[in-house]
Specification:
By secondary structure, the protein is of the alpha+beta class. Helix content is 39%, strand content 28%. A 5-stranded antiparallel sheet has the order 1-2-3-5-4, with helices on one face. α1 packs antiparallel against α2.
Amino acid sequence: MTDFSGEVSIHSEKDIILARKSVREVATAMGFGITDVTRIVTAASELVRNIYVYANSGVMRWRVLRSPRAGLELIFEDEGPGISDITRAMEPGYTTGSGLGMGLPGSRRLMDEMDVSSEVGKGTTICAKKWLSR
């Protein structure tokens, strides 16, 4: 595997597809099994869609982690409205839009680690990690 990091700018629905494809390719190349690849791609898709829907634009960055454990880190950043109550936003079913309220809590369940930081009026950053189990 030659690329250890990358990014996808999110400005349109097509970028959601590009982000999913990028994450699928890197996770597969890293040796994640089909179940974990599906989990990672699903989480990335939800988080990228949140950027597009709530902030209109942003970026998804990824990098391969090699020390001390092997894993994949995904970072989602936007300069949107921010999340006023992260604890509540992480509750299944809570939504400020028309969705099912499963994006953030669902993504947290699919990944091994997920940290959310947000400031109202300034944007949101989410860091999610999935570790290879060998």
